[in-house]
Amino acid sequence: MQRGTGTMTATRRKQLYREYLGHYLTFACAVLLIVITLAIVVFIALQGLATFFANHINPWQFLFSTRWQPDRPLSEGGPLVGTLAFTVGSIAVSLLAVLIGGPLSVVAAVFMVEIAPGWGRKVLQPAIEILAGIPSVVYGWIGLSLLVPFLRHELHTLGFSLLAGCLVLAVMIIPTVVSLTADSLRSLSRDLKEAAYALGSTRWQTISRVLLPAARPGIMTAIVLGLARAFGEALAVQMVIGNTRNLPASILSPMTTLTSAITMDMGYTIPGTAWNNALWSMSLLLLLITFGFIILIRLVGRGRVYR
Amino acid sequence: MKARLVDHLATFFFWLGAGIILVLLGALVGYLLFKGCKWIDLDFITRAPENLKAGGGVGPQLFNSFYLLVLSMLFTVPLGVGAGIYLAEYAGNGDVNPALALPRSKRASNFLLAALNLSIETLASLPSIVVGLFGLLIFVVSTGWGYSLMAGALALTVLNLPVMVRISLEALHAVPRDLKEASLALGASRWETIWKVVLPAAFPGLVTGGIITAGRVFGEAAALLYTAGMSSPVLDFSDWNPLHPNSPLNPFRPAATLAVHIWKINSEGLIPDVRRVADGSAALLIIVVLVFNLLARWLGSVLYRRMTAS
């Protein structure tokens, strides 16, 4: 068929029309993803920066002060919105959650791929999927109705605590870490394992000295994603953590996190006030930390596969 | 000998780790069902909630959860599959023999691809409360809708789009390239190949992934607190005109879902039987999630057998 001869049949024209329509419609769907992302960044940033430009709060104080008195009247020096206690709380609770849930998840993933693939596929895999499907509010409710009273009776404390928060989060990140770690173990070349066995290694030696080091970039990615998930979780943490606005004194003391403070106060503060704007600034902080996690994932995921 | 002993010990610990997770899951689900199922009866799942007294049900919340699910999937599925098709079939070489691929000038530039991947990654790792706040700014305040089902559905769409795109990409990539190449070689256009060959072949994967996403929508709460709202107007379940303010189908009314309701009664603590309502609602949520999970597996395998005639 020659182009440009003007003898295009009606069928062919329809075919071409559909081709362009399909191409551009799907292109529009893809571009929408970029538009949404940009819109989120721009609008959250505009709202979040109002604290510093409209309410004239010092960004340094916002980040590194622990004094949170957002409703202090102007006669006494105006509102104070230092969020250090929230940030430290978020970091503490999510790091501890990863310390507990991470190793357990890696063990389970190795079990699934190397120790008992049959069991792993038939029992553990579906179990992990169900664990992933349990809504976060339900995790929070179990924490509130089971874990918090248990801690209160056994340890004679308030119950609402950093410990309760990180235990709930540890369970919540297991599915993420297990499935990503298992994926990266499965993607390793068989040669690695066979070479290790051929050299006379036991299974544990093969796993600990060959497979885990080879899969390290994938495992690190899984752990960081788990950390990000724990960092961003709002309701489950808010329900068990006690929500006092101080730096946590011990693992048993109540505290609060960035997400938890936003969830609690957003509905009760008046738009435009320093208090409300500070909550938006905290969301902006969460957004920036999310980008930090993405960069971290790209860095740790880049490692060499073979050492 | 020592190496063998260590190996046995390690094996024991791997079994122990896997066992802990299984026991944990069993205990969680068992506890929820045991505690909650005794409260679930027809009255509980149909009656309206009480604000101050005991004895309320979760009828409107249950309805809202399902309605919101349908509304948000109406946006999520076409947009997610569309973006997935673009990424899998148009942006790159379409996973086919270079002779049959799109000319380079019609593919996505490296910059566009990088921007798309970064966007998907960002959206996928945003905390859901941040998505909820974005929804509050755009869908609740800017549009003037106030707390509404539509705002909630759109916020959930933002939350689940990256998941749906990834599911679509996976399902489309799993289609054998021979099929695409055969279709293109027979003279079908790219769109005809996608529409009549690739999408039907990817259908089982899309359905399974879609249902699992739906399960996530059903349990989401953080993104909904400040978009769909925490209250529900008095609903008139005999009025199905979507334009009436008290009709259950009106998409511009506020609507607390089941998951939001659990959070709300706990944080307000106004009703005396929080324990009963929360236990019952949590069990309901778990049951729905389990059903979705089983449904996805079953439907996926049935469709796969039907499509591949095996």
UniProtKB/TrEMBL annotation, chain A:
Gene Ontology terms: cellular component: plasma membrane
Entry keywords, A to Z: Cell membrane, Membrane, Phosphate transport, Transmembrane, Transmembrane helix, Transport
Residue spans crossing the bilayer: 21-46, 84-111, 123-142, 162-182, 278-301
Domain ABC transmembrane type-1: 87-297
Family: Belongs to the binding-protein-dependent transport system permease family. CysTW subfamily.
Protein purpose: Part of the binding-protein-dependent transport system for phosphate; probably responsible for the translocation of the substrate across the membrane.
Protein name per Swiss-Prot or TrEMBL: Phosphate transport system permease protein
Provenance organism: Neomoorella thermoacetica (Clostridium thermoaceticum)
Phylogenetic lineage: Bacteria, Bacillati, Bacillota, Clostridia, Neomoorellales
UniProtKB/TrEMBL annotation, chain B:
Keywords, comma-separated and alphabetical: Cell membrane, Membrane, Transmembrane, Transmembrane helix, Transport
PROSITE patterns: ABC_TM1 (PS50928)
Transmembrane segments: 12-34, 66-90, 111-139, 145-163, 282-300
Coarse class of the protein's main subcellular location: membrane
A Pfam family reported for this protein in Swiss-Prot or TrEMBL: BPD_transp_1
Compartment annotation: Cell membrane
Protein family according to the UniProt entry: Belongs to the binding-protein-dependent transport system permease family. CysTW subfamily.
Protein name: Phosphate transport system permease protein PstA
Organism per entry: Neomoorella thermoacetica (Clostridium thermoaceticum)
Gene: pstA
